[in-house]
Amino acid sequence: MDLLPISTPHCRVERDGHIVVVTMDRPEARNALSTDMLVGLADAWAYISAEPEVRVGVLTGAGGTFCAGADLKAMGAPSADPRVRERAAAITDYHWKGLLRDVDALPAKPIVCAVEGYAVAGGTELLVGTDLRVAAESATLGLFEARRALFPMGGSAIRLPRQIPYAFAMDVLLTGRPITAAEALAMGMVNRVVPDGQALAAALELAGQVAACGPLAVQAILRAYRETIGLPEAEALKVADAIGWPVIGSQDAKEGARAFRDKRPPVYRGE
Question: What does the sequence similarity comment in the record state about its family (predicted)?
Fold first, then answer.
């Protein structure tokens, strides 16, 4: 994979064809969030959205841990890297963008999450902001904020009850207890659980399946979901139709039909 120049001291951004892998890289602090990390994440999401040939992103953590949440001291301190300081000043609300909380700056393409070890507090908030989720068997999730008389500012108080059944979401949010990977799977917080050490490989496999689909179709499906949250069904269908009909008439759609007829893999160009 090629290391991209938007990488920072705590966030490694690499690209392999249609897939971008974003690695939170502060293992000595269990990948706790820092300015260097959040700026790198914000730039990574913007790159994934803007780069036409990128179809999907994968988010993971270095050193066998996903993310242990916020490091308030490190998040409040300026970076030692001049480029990161410049980017932090240039990106409005880089911390919310990095955490996938800013709904107007969410990546236009799916993000697959690969969790090993701890993904707690801000780590679970990041997970809740992604689209597909793989967890290792011994992974630990959880929103511990209520136990510490805090509030989950990354958006999970709103998002989690919309993503999984209400009673499960309240269990996670109101008890502040650790959640095992098996429980997370049963609740619907993650898509699959794999043996320890295999989360990234499984996430890359999922990302490859997404990347093999028509990129216009994938992005339109994400848009339709995001732009119709809270709308009555009839109104939501009108929005979805406006998004979907151009996809139906695209060159990619024609290629999909030809490939099916010719019994060959399709070659999609995002056109």
Answer: Belongs to the enoyl-CoA hydratase/isomerase family.
- Is 125 assigned a catalytic role? yes
Quick one: pLDDT at residue 70? 86
DSSP annotation string for the chain: -EEPTT-BTTEEEEEETTEEEEEE--GGGTT-B-HHHHHHHHHHHHHHHH-TT--EEEEEESTT--B--B-HHHHHSPPSSHHHHHHHHHSTTHHHHHTT--GGG--SS-EEEEE-SEEETHHHHHHHTSSEEEEETT-EEE--GGGGT---TTTHHHHHHHHS-HHHHHHHHHH---EEHHHHHHHTS-SEEE-TT-HHHHHHHHHHHHHTS-HHHHHHHHHHHHHTTT--HHHHHHHHHHHHHHHHTSHHHHHHHHHHHHTS-------
Domain residue ranges in the chain: 2-211, 215-262
Q: What is the pLDDT of residues 41-62, one digit of tens each?
A: 999 999 999 999 999 999 999 9
Model pLDDT for residues 118-158, shown as the tens digit of each residue = 999 999 999 999 999 999 999 999 999 999 999 999 999 99
Tokens of 58: 């994968």
- Active site (annotated) includes residue 28: no
Query: Whole-model pTM?
Result: 0.96
Give the CATH H-level superfamily of domain 2-211: 2-enoyl-CoA Hydratase; Chain A, domain 1 (3.90.226.10)
Q: Which of 86, 116, 125, 183 is catalytic?
A: 125
